[in-house]
Amino acid sequence: MPKTDKPKILVVNDDPASLLALTSLLDQWAAETNYAVVSARSGQEALRQVLLHDFAVILLDVNMPGMDGFETAEAIHQRARSADIPIIFVTAFLADEIDRLKAYQRGAVDFLFTPVIPQILHAKVSVFVALANKNEQLRRQADKLSQRTAELTTSNRQLTREIEERRAIERKSHAKDEFLAMLGHELRNPLSAISSAAALLAMPGAESNTRARAIIQRQSQHLSRIVDDLLDLSRAMSGKILLNRKPLDLSALVSTCLDTFRATGRTAGYTMNVNLSEAWAEGDATRLEQVACNLIDNALKYTPDGGTIGITVDGTDKEVVFTVSDSGVGIEPELLPHVFDVFVQGSISLDRAQGGLGIGLSLVRNLVELHGGNVHAFSDGDRNGSRFEIRMPRVDAPSVPVPAPHHMPAEHGKPSVLLIEDNDDGREMMASMLGAYDYPVRQAADGLDGVAAASAEPSDVALVDIGLPGIDGYEVARRLRQNPATANMRLIALTGYGLAEDRRRVMEAGFDLHLVKPVDIKLLLEALGETRAAQRNAPSKAA
Fold first, then answer.
1. What CA–CA distance (Å, rounded) separates 63 from 12?
2. What are the pLDDT digits (tens) for 456-495?
3. CATH superfamily of 8-116
4. Which class would CATH give 417-537?
5. Which CATH architecture has domain 246-393?
6. Residue 80 DSSP code
7. C-alpha to C-alpha distance for 198 and 8, rounded to whole angstroms
8. Residues contacting 61, CB < 8 A, separation 6+
9. In a 3-state reduction of DSSP, which class is residue 405?
10. Where are the domains of the chain?
C-alpha cells in the first residue's frame, strides 16, 4: 500500500500562550491518534497554510485582530478545495444565539470555550481525524475503482476488437469455405461431362464420337476459363500483372465483346440497349476486354430471359465512363458494399443455376484499379436490377492509327517436332493431335532423354514442358542452346506457369516462345507454322 500523509490539524490563535497551550495538548495525543499539528498566528497565515495543506479540522480563534475568526472562516470556505474543512471556533466568551448563528453561517461545525477541557478537545478532534482517515480511505478506494474501471474499459475495448476481428476472420473463413465448395462444384461438372464423353468415345458410332468430342472441347474450355480467372485474380491482387498500355477506343473494345456474345447466341431473348460513343483511354486491350466481358456476362447471367440490358460508353473531358445495367435479380442491400470482395457471390443455393466462382467482380475491380480507374455498383435491392459503372482517365485519340499486326503465312511442309513432356496422357494426346495435322513428332518423357534425342537427331522445333524430372525445362533449353547441333532449334515452352516472372525466366533460358497450358491449338499451330521462317531469319544462338 502506498504511504500517505497523516491527517493534519490547524490551530489558529493570535495569542502565543493560548496557541502553545492548544498545540501542546494536541501533541500529547498525536502519536496515538495518528495526526500532525500545524499552527498559525493570524487569519492571513491560516489562509496560506490552507493553500499548502489539506486539514482534517481547523481550531479557529474568534477574536483576532485584523481578520477575525468569522472572516477567516468565510475566506477558507470560499475556496473550492477547502470549502468542506470542518471549523471549530474557540472563544473565551459565552456565545449567544446570534453569535452561534453567525458562526454556523460562516461554516462552523462546533464551539469550544476556554479554558478548554482536554477530554472534550480530544474527543472532538478524534472524531474529525477519524472522519478524515475514512475519507482518505474512501478516496483511495475510489482511485482504485477508477483505475480498475479504466482497465476494464480498456480490456472491454480490446475484447470487443478481438471479437470483431474474430467475426471478420470467421466471415472470411466462411466465404472461403463457400468458395471451395463452389470451386469443387464448378470443377466436377465439366470433369463429369468429360468423363462421360470419354466413355462415349469408347462406344461405336461416328455420331456419338462427334458429340463426345464437342463435349470434351467445350468443357475443357470451361475448365480453362476457371483456372484463368483464378490465376488472373491472384496476379491482380499481388500486383504481378504487367499491363501493355496503349491508347484504345473503349467503345470499339466493348463492341467487340458484344459481337462475341451475339455470335454465341448469349444475347438472344434480351432487349439490348447499346449506346457507344468514341472514348479513348490508355490501357491493356486484353485486360480491358476481360473487364467488359465480365460485366456483360454478369448482367446476362443474372437477368432472366426477356429482360433488358443497357450498355453505354461515354465520357467527360477528363474521364471515360463505361456502364452496364440490367433489369435482373438485383443486389441485396447487405451484399452491395461487399460485391467486389473476393469470393463474394449472391445467395448460394444447391441448384447453382447461375454458376461461377464469385471472383469475376473482384477481378474487374483489381484490373480497373491497375488502370488508374474505379468501379462502383448500384442497385435498389432484390428484383430491381443493378448497374455497374467504370470510370477511367481519358486520353486524346492518337493522330496516326496503329496498323494491325501482319501474320506471316505458314510455309509449305511441316516442321519436325520433338515433344518433351513427362505426363504420359498429356504427351500422348499432344502427339496424336499434332500427328492429326501431319506434323512428324518424336517424344521424350524427361529432360535428359529430350536433350539426348535432340542431339542424336535435331528437330525443327522442340515443345518443352518446364516441370520435368531429372533436369527441368530451363536446363533443357540451356543445354540445347550450348550444343552447336541444336543451337538453332526453335524452342517453345509449354507450362502451367503464366506470370510475368515465369515468362522472363523462360526467355532468359533461351526459349523463343512461352505458351501456357492448356495450349490453344490455334496458337500452337500458328507458332509451328512460323517455325521455318523464324529459323531462317534468326542468328545463331549457340553459346
1. 11
2. 998 999 999 988 888 999 999 999 999 999 998 999 998 8
3. Response regulator (3.40.50.2300)
4. alpha beta
5. 2-Layer Sandwich (3.30)
6. G
7. 101
8. 12, 13, 14, 15, 18, 69, 89, 90, 91
9. coil
10. 8-116, 246-393, 417-537
